[in-house]
Amino acid sequence: MASHSDANSLRDFWIPGHVLVPDSVVEGSNIDIEGPKCPVLVFVNSRSGGQLGGELLKTYRALLNENQVFDLGEEAPDKVLSRIYANLENLRLQGDHIAIQIMEKLRLIVAGGDGTAGWLLGVVCDLKLSHPPPIATVPLGTGNNLPFAFGWGKKNPGTDEQAVKSFLDQVMKAKEMKIDNWHILMRMRAPKQGPCDPIPPLELPHSLHAFHRVSEADELNKEGFHTFRGGFWNYFSMGMDAQVSYAFHSERKLHPEKFKNQLVNQSTYAKLGCTQGWFFAPLFHPPSSNIAHLAKVKVMKTHGGWEDLQIPSSIRSIVCLNLPSFSGGLNPWGTPNKMKRRDRDLTPPYVDDGLIEVVGFRDAWHGLVLLAPNGHGTRLAQAHRIRFEFHKGAAEYTFMRIDGEPWKQPLPVDDDTVLVEISHHGQVNMLATHDSKSKSENDPSSPHHNDVEEDDSDDEEAKADEYRKFGAADTFKIPDEVDLAHLS
Asked: Taking the chain, what is the end-to-end CA distance rounded to the nearest angstrom?
């Protein structure tokens, strides 16, 4: 049973029942009543982290109002947020003082893997809420790059009452930080036979949606082609690193009982890196699968024209990185020194500067340089947009990955084409602790915060509103048959 002091501290996070129930009517005036200092809505992927997700769900429901804690296996976040914000607006119009305070102060907590966190971020972005709430992430996955990048750690948390109270206290003290969203478009010629959604044997990640799930009149679709699009916050990668990730996910799908422990998951990942040949890439990886042989790569550094990006012939993996956290917390871009910033027009990896960092790796040994204090990958470019145009006949397939979700991508064999284009999409609000690895160009405490020129172009505004959707809310729903553990 909670003590009196515990009950008082939890009151800071507690949302009254009438705010959470649709069509509530305000009885009397509550203008003099102080609402919660830090109201939170909690979303838990109960299948993440082995048994931890379910245990965390129980603890949050025991400490808070059950109606402010949601199991993502039972209800999608777009439905929850649409319902609650509609109710908040209704109460605001009735003059409900507490509802007005909650609207202004609300914070979200999401517990799950990077895929789960990305799902919620996409929903908040799509719903275009009047007061978009900032989001804190609880690390319940394998890589946990999103939580690590904002100071929430990368190890699975404790699920007891004390651990949850400690996390809530951190949420109250956390600062808001804007981060860039990135839109990804993939287009391929429609096969002459067979269904197209997905194209067999293509199993796309849930963050990529077929165009007609977003809008029948999607301007980005072309006749005779299949168009998929979605968004990411952490990274897009292609090549051998994604191949290892694909092997890991395939193994987990076949034998889920073996993947109930974060340490076991990470050791299995390392073993697969060896068996897939990532440590011996020159022996096991055909040169035809190197990035330069697979595709022509173009970048747009500012709102100007496309430029060809020269990729060294030895690069077998390319990472387009938004956050300074990859592969469980490593920073492939590092921090370029003053000379490199001047000579190559490079900047530190700010998360809100409208630029994505493009890094290349030769093999896993090259990746190990990231463990050194100033280690980094091969810095290829910083760009506002990047485009991959795949060469016909270069290879049958390649491996790709978005925010931890990998897939095996068929490539053109004759005159067909596969195009992948990544572009800046706007921003969303995150919560960061004082240990945050992510840096803002607008934060005076970030090093060299004046070095980057603010990108104030309104080019994105000219695009149709449908283009600006990730398809995470309303028009997209994870199918019932999909195991939510896949998102962890």
From this structure: 32
The last residue of a domain, from among 173, 203, 222:
173
Question: What band does 455 get if pLDDT is binned at 50, 70 and 90?
Answer: very low
User: CATH number for the domain including 79?
Assistant: 3.40.50
Rounded to two decimals, the pTM is: 0.80
Alpha carbons 325 and 225: distance in angstroms, whole number: 34
Decide if 191 is inside a domain. Answer: yes
pLDDT interval class at 412 (50, 70, 90): confident
Report the C-alpha gap between 23 and 391 in whole angstroms. Answer: 57
Query: What's the pLDDT band for 459 if we cut at 50, 70, 90?
Result: very low
The residue from 173, 196, 222 where one domain ends is 173
Q: 434 burial class (0-12, 13-18, 19+ CB within 10 angstroms)?
A: exposed
User: What percent of the chain clears pLDDT 90, i.e. is strictly above it?
Assistant: 35
Measure the CA–CA gap between 217 and 221, rounded to whole angstroms.
Answer: 8
106, 132 contact by CB (below 8 A):
no
Contact 387, 421 (CB under 8 A): yes
Locus of tokens 């938004």:
322
